[in-house]
Amino acid sequence: KSVFVVPNPYRGFAAIAETFWVRERLGLSAAALLALAAWLTVPWTLKMVVGHLVDTVPILGSRRRSYILLGALLQCGAGLALAFAASGGLTPVMAELLYVAASLTAVVGLVVQDCVADAMTTEVVDRTAPDGTPRDPAVVQAELGDVQVLGRVALMGGAFAVAGIGGWAAQVLPVATVFLIGAAVPLL
Questions:
Q1: Residues 46 and 111 sit within 8 Å (Cβ to Cβ)
Q2: What is the residue-level pLDDT of the chain in tens, covering all 188 positions?
Q3: pTM
């Protein structure tokens, strides 16, 4: 078994449990895990295409909420698939296939949600003053930068908190249970 594990950073809460589960239970080689890590970057390279869809193609009449829900459902489905794979009811090969599919699905869900978040950050800064006159473009750009910085600070703070709790859960709970809890996180 491989001792080289590429954890999937897109699942936050369950990342530590996932790392140990992949290393101890799956028979994926270092080369296979490295190839998976490369494939997990592909959805990020398509982020501009997804962003265009978010901005121009409404789903059920919504350009934001429906995409956020779609991303959350993809991530939730990935977590449920991992919980099923970790439950021990599958052959090792099927568990490996489900792991690969769930990893890609989770990343696609996160990319969709990230595109919506990016679109929304540009919408929170007013372009016009209360009297309807255009605001100074330099002030608008500065406020957009502030929103981006605050969003990243909040993201990193949340990631550290969730990873800490997930690390504790990985020590005291079965892996399948950690994956189930992780599956619920995107729905919040």
A1: yes
A2: 333 444 444 467 888 889 889 988 898 888 999 999 999 999 999 999 999 999 899 998 888 899 999 999 999 999 999 999 999 888 989 999 999 999 999 999 999 998 998 888 888 889 999 999 999 999 999 999 998 888 888 878 887 888 888 889 999 999 999 999 989 888 87
A3: 0.83
